[in-house]
Specification:
Length: about 290
């Protein structure tokens, strides 16, 4: 004779429970995860990693909400964690001028991705660059205005960007390192506006120190661009002091007010002491 345990569930009972779970437990889990994600995605929150980072990055400063002053845009779920586009844009010419800003990726091994300064011709800001994101993280911008610092940001789902393999083998990457190009775009509106748009492209593997040689499987030593300076004539447009979070072969797209100079000059330095300078005419390519 077979004796059944009193707590044994029948197949019908199990089926009933499985059908009931999505209506009870799963929504509760979903709402808890959504609330946690909303909190992590709030750039003004002191919770999480930012609580440990802020003193080292901005000291005792208490940035205000950047709403209406500057906006940071990024994909919620990145297509490629090694080249995540980050857009920094102000709503219009009446927005307060921003002379400097810090881009922070909270969960990256080196959280400060870039420290930037901007000349008058860059106002209002309209700039995009590409970064690596190592794991799900807040990406935040702390911008300095005449009335004090403001902060904005986005939560981005991406992982593995800082250790993602380089697209070229080290020998080939180093052989083309330092090549600089600028692509110009014709003004959308004729002389009524002096705003121009350009895209700076720099060949450099920007090795993070966390990548492996795909043949030897040994770690590739860190070597990355740590300073970019762009001028039109003698007037500064912007500088970027970067780290391992800038993507391989950095690309920076930016808008600026034309001062009449015939060329843009680009100055680039990396951590090995390499220096590259290039002067490029402004006229759009025919």
């Amino acid at each position: 004779m077979t004796v059944r345990h009193k707590n044994t569930f029948s197949l019908a009972t199990l089926l009933t429970l499985s059908l009931a779970l999505p209506l009870t437990v799963f929504p509760a889990i979903h709402h808890a995860q959504a609330a946690d994600e909303a909190e992590r995605g709030n750039p003004l929150s002191d919770k999480g990693s930012w609580n440990d980072l802020r003193a080292d990055i901005i000291g005792d400063a208490k940035p205000a909400d950047a709403d209406g002053i500057v906006e940071l845009d990024a994909p919620y779920r990145a297509h490629d964690a090694a080249t995540v586009p980050i857009s920094i844009k102000q709503p219009g010419p009446t927005a307060p001028a921003i002379n400097s800003a810090i881009l922070v990726i909270d969960e990256n091994p080196a959280p400060v991705a870039a420290e930037m300064t901007f000349g008058p011709a860059m106002q209002p800001l309209d700039l995009e660059l590409r970064v690596r994101i190592n794991q799900y993280s807040n990406v935040r911008l702390i911008a300095e205005t005449a009335n004090g610092p403001v902060m904005t940001g986005r939560f981005v789902k991406a992982s593995g960007g800082c250790s993602a393999p380089a697209t070229k083998d080290p020998q080939l990457a180093l052989s083309t390192m330092g090549q600089i190009r600028i692509k110009h775009f014709a003004p959308a509106v004729e002389a009524a506006s002096q705003r121009r748009e350009a895209q700076l492209m720099i060949r450099h593997p920007n090795y993070s120190g966390l990548q492996r040689d795909q043949i030897t499987q040994l770690f590739i030593a860190a070597q990355f661009i740590n300073h970019i300076e762009v001028k039109q004539g003698e007037d500064l447009l912007f500088t970027v002091d970067g780290g391992i979070s800038l993507s391989e072969n950095p690309v920076i797209r930016f808008a600026y007010t034309d001062n009449g100079a015939k060329a843009l000059t680009v100055h680039v330095e990396d951590t090995e002491g390499n220096v590259w300078d290039k002067t490029l005419p402004k006229e759009p390519a025919s």
